[in-house]
Amino acid sequence: MSTATPQPHAVHTVLGSGPAGTALARELVRRGHPVRLVDRRGEGPAIEGVERFAADVSTADGARAAVADAAVVYHCVNVAYHLQVEVMPRVQEAVLAAVEASGARLVVLDTLYPYGETGGAVMTEDSPWLATSRKGRMRAELDERYLAAHRSGRARVVLGRSADFVGPGVLNSSLGAAVFPGALTGGEVLGFGDVDLPHSYTDIRDVAAGLATLGEREDGDGRVWHLPTAPAVSTREIHTLIEKRVGRPLNVVVLSRLRPFGPFDERFVAEYEEMFYQHTEPQIMDSSAFERSFAVAATPPADTVEATVTWYEAWLADR
């Protein structure tokens, strides 16, 4: 692939200031881009080189204001699980209309949900979209609309799919605040489903670097890419790496059936139950196409665990 030359002073607008959006904003600044980080409040800790901006991008006016003057727009917006099926299509409609009007390229952070249950088959960009869950079907419908918008010339769009997040700043994940605080304090550590199955986890820093690369490389447009993700290992192997780093055995509570636990309340459990198949069959994501095309490598799991434990040590110290 040839490398497109990014515009040196054009604004890169990141929609959504969760772990992915914040990590991406930092990565874009590191690469020399002016960055606008958008959420509904426009508040949060100052990040050097980042303008915080308040807008509701589920509305036409909010989306237009958010993407004004941007060369590239990164859609990292997510909402509470129980609101996704209702809200995410509205966000798509508003954001697509805004980038169509402005001419900005659109980079969309996506999930593995459209593939649905795979029976343990390795997921590549060519895998069929067979989702049967409400949220999986919704994501698949949105993705087809994004790709159709690109094919029709309505907008320039590219999608980057990630496996489950892990890494600095990641709290609401199966490898997040229900795991690392307990590992550091001797408390309970959550394991979902069968922790001996291979399961792909994507380092949040690889999510950010992958999306930034797609934002800089127009030659990747018009398709789905799997963002750089280390080869799948079992969750138990991840727990072993954490044990080595923290110097104590983990007190793992394995939930073979979903129930409220730690940060995951009854409302979340009710909405997540249809996705629990991800923890009862292998979840193996192959990102080799991205890694070959853009000459990058995913962060090794041991390095991810080291960075994540270090971040949680500081996070706990500040609480």
UniProtKB/TrEMBL annotation:
Top-level taxon: Bacteria
NAD-dependent epimerase/dehydratase domain location is 16-219
TM helices/strands, residue ranges: none
InterPro entries per the UniProt record, alphabetical: Epimerase_deHydtase, NAD(P)-bd_dom_sf, NAD(P)-dependent_oxidoreduct
Q: Name one Pfam family in it.
A: Epimerase
Q: What is this protein called?
A: NAD-dependent epimerase/dehydratase family protein
State the organism of origin.
Streptomyces lienomycini
The lineage, from the top, is:
Bacteria, Bacillati, Actinomycetota, Actinomycetes, Kitasatosporales
